[in-house]
Sequence to fold (250 residues):
Amino acid sequence: MNEICNKTPKSELKWGRLFGHRSYKQYGLNSCISAPQVNQIPLEVFNDSDYLMTMTQSKRRANKDEGFTLIEIVLVLVVLFIISAVTLMVVNANKTMGSEPLIAETDGLIASLRYAQIQSLNENASANWGINFASDSTSYTLYKNGLAATDTNGNPIMIPVKKFSKPTDIFRPFYDPDTPSCPKNCHKMDSKVTITSGSGTTVTFDKWGIPVDGTGVALLVNMEIKLSQGTDPNRTETTITITRNTGFIP
Fold:
């Protein structure tokens, strides 16, 4: 029998592997059955459980050889996208966690600079408005014509970012009281935030909203004001740029 099987072509041997089980032995068939002999197999053999199991296993092996389906690839890509999005959100959250005072102060300073710029545009050349940064790096004041901004009666003109909250107000990030050293036209920043670049200088805008120096000459370079939170070398820092010629503040 082995000698016959060895001489049987491969096209016939596959039938021997498929049908060479006990059901066919009961019908006097050998494991080297050829393709033409399949027609001689009784119909009930094809309903045999061993035959069905063999066919199922052969189909599974064939499917494994075909690789991944399009649906499987799409599902994997969707899962990877979700994991990447969640990871990015966690990383960004860790970066910004605890830096709320710096973010609030940065937004407040940008709003104050734009307010001074708008005031200069509205004055029609009668006054230049700006923001003066204290040399102690903890506060800044609304300026008008080189001095702390006041009305015609000499009262301080309130800077919009000024806070009048109570120390117990949980809806305010910090307490900014109206004091003689820092009245309505002055803003005392959060104790965690300091001015690391630009202290002791004044940003002034002319009637066109263009940043100028103390003599009214347009600045030749962009001006930068930097705020930072913390004192260690890895502290969080933000930079506010006042663009020359246009006064644009991104």
